[in-house]
Amino acid sequence: MAEKNGGNQSHILVFFFPVQGHMNPMVQFSKRLASKGQKVTIVTTTSASKSMKTGSFGRNLNIELVSDGSEHVQQGSETMKQSVERVQTETTKSLVELIKKIKNSSDANEKYLLKFLVYHYSMPWALNIAREQGIDGGPFYTTPASVKTICYHFHKGVLKLPLEEPTKKLPGLPPLQLEDLPSFFSDPNSDPIFVDIAMQQFSNLNEVKWIFHSTFEKLENEVLEWMANQNLPIKAIGPTIPSMFLDKKLEDDKDYGLNLFEPNVECTEWLDSKETGSVVYASFGSLANLTKEQFEELAWGLYNSNHNFLWVVRESEKEKLPTNFGDRIAEKGLVVTWCTQLQVLAHKAVGCFLTHCGWNSALEALSLGVPMVGMPHRADHPTVAKYVKDVWKVGVRVKVKEGSVTKEEISACIRQVMDTDKGMEFRKAALVWKEWAKEAMAEGGSSDKNIEEFVAKMKLT
Ligand code: UDP
């Protein structure tokens, strides 16, 4: 996988949050750093290791597990607050041990010097660990820059809730309505701890020299520029998807490689049997938990759209499927518990992606030129859906009535993307984004340059 290699290399730790959608971009960033000759150790916690299927990551890239104390806790016995506190206390101890071990290892005295800790933005306390151990650190954002900026405006008191007017124009952002804000601001039922967690990211953000974002300049141009003007050292380094779907520079980089779920292998054969652009791919990512009623509306919305569909229904959600749904759909639909999403999105049979607007899913669809039906679920999804529809103009967003989305609305949105001239425009726009995504990651592209700059700085420190 290595592109370049020379002397005087750095060793970089990449510490991620053990959830699929947060692991994937950080793993990809690690691969890019390794491909530029850095030694990278991906660090994650024991709570992920139980279900993690590790892959091969090639030269210069390895994984270490540190304890977050979860092995001593019975599942479901803690509140969210207790769990957050335990992870911080226990991980701090084990991360310090790991850093000391690496510093004392033979590599440290030879070629690779431990220099930097990249940490998931939700764990800003990791910066103190790094600095106390004599290395530098910086956060990695697995959410859009727009969402980070909305949080920033809330932190600074520029965004106040409830909104004084139906639409708010915040610096760097398009006009936003309440429904476009992350759900921890807009949903009155959301646990306030999520706002606390979101605000913690700013506790030491003005102390760091590097802030990495899984996005690319053209995609979030306005907001990235605005954040940079606030003296925040933001570096867009994405889209963080395997190289074989973008610049094809990293030969063996065909998938993310670290899976918490087992993909179903039937998908490709099934897709091969369908006509070009005839399939709706539907997935709500790794965490979404829809109500049984909403699940049924979704099932019939897909079915009644009169298009073929491939639907990911995770094992834990399967009981919400309508009775005998499998028999009813016959050849028209395939329901799987997990798939290799990138391969599916890249398949010519796929004509549209019905998505919960998780940040990775949206980036993947844009990078592969697939138009979307956005059906946001929670967290940052509403803001991503706003951008899909109104900023990138690559799809539609379902309308919510009294807290849910009807099957009629779902079918109508699918038909708009699959069957109309407007749908053709969405596809054309998505194909332009695909080229721009490739361009950003290719040698000399905006994201590639940012990664190069970081690597070059590491060599000098
Ligand atoms: N994914 C996958 N197979 C599936 C569903 C999802 O590989 O069947 C991957 C998808 O490619 C993405 C990640 O899981 O990289 C989900 O991340 P996202 O941010 O979209 O949603 P989250 O799971 O965080 O809500």
UniProtKB/TrEMBL annotation:
EC number: 2.4.1.-
Top EC category: transferase
Pfam families named in the record: UDPGT
CDD domains according to UniProt: GT1_Gtf-like
InterPro entries listed in its UniProt record: UDP_glucos_trans (IPR002213), UDP_glycos_trans_CS (IPR035595)
Domain of life: Eukaryota
Transport is among the record's keywords: no
GO molecular function: quercetin 3-O-glucosyltransferase activity; quercetin 7-O-glucosyltransferase activity
Keyword line: Glycosyltransferase, Transferase
Family indicated by similarity: Belongs to the UDP-glycosyltransferase family.
Protein name: Glycosyltransferase
Provenance organism: Rosa chinensis (China rose)
